[in-house]
Specification:
six-stranded mixed sheet; binds magnesium ion; Rossmann fold; globular; binds inosinic acid
């Protein structure tokens, strides 16, 4: 039977510092606006809740859910919307917040979908920019961390719905 090994990657202290710094940067860029922040369920829920509490601007918050991964560690490449927005985004500044950008398919799909609602602007923010498998090339405006490769869990990120609640981020390997 396969078992998993976990190698610490980002501690909760480092995550908290980076998320706070990112929130200050976003607050300064969105000063005097009231952006709509759209979190991508489920992975972004912890990142977005910390980010939102460090923002210095008022923001409306909504969520979408997109399926792309199933239970494998490899992106399927096809996305479908499981839950759509419930706030009107026409003429609003939109900031998409996701946990991790891997191939880029999810963000590219979501951006395309939201553009049909005629927002004033759309930017993207992710906790982790994972660069090795990038296929679609969406512009990532904000990222807390960049990694080259590896499958990571914790702080909202799961493997087959497990490990989201870990307070730090780990590289997971099957052995
Ligand atoms: P993309 O469409 O390939 O960019 O995949 C994005 C989605 O795949 C993320 O929102 C995650 O839900 C999932 N994903 C990609 N890499 C990882 C990982 O290392 N750990 C956990 N989930 C991941
Ligand atoms: Mg996700």
């Amino acid at each position: 039977m396969k078992s998993q090994a976990f190698e610490p990657l980002f501690s909760s202290e480092i995550i908290s510092q980076r998320v706070h710094a990112l929130a200050l940067q976003i607050s300064s860029d969105y000063k005097k606006t009231r952006p709509v922040i759209i979190g991508v369920l489920k992975g972004a829920f912890i990142f977005l809740s910390d980010l939102a509490r460090s923002l210095k601007v008022d923001a409306d918050i909504d969520f979408v859910q997109i399926s792309s991964y199933g239970s494998s560690q490899v992106s399927s490449g096809t996305c479908s919307l499981k839950k759509d927005i419930s706030i009107q985004v026409a003429d609003r500044h939109v900031l998409i917040v996701d946990d991790i950008i891997d191939t880029g398919h999810t963000i590219a799909y979501l951006k395309q979908h939201l553009l049909q609602h005629n927002p004033k602007s759309i930017k993207t923010c992710c906790l982790i920019d994972k660069q090795i498998a990038r296929v679609s090339n969406p512009i990532i405006d904000y990222s807390a961390f960049t990694i080259q490769e590896g499958f990571v869990v914790g702080y909202g990120l799961d493997f087959d719905e497990q490990f989201r609640g870990l307070p730090a981020i780990y590289i997971m390997t099957a052995s």
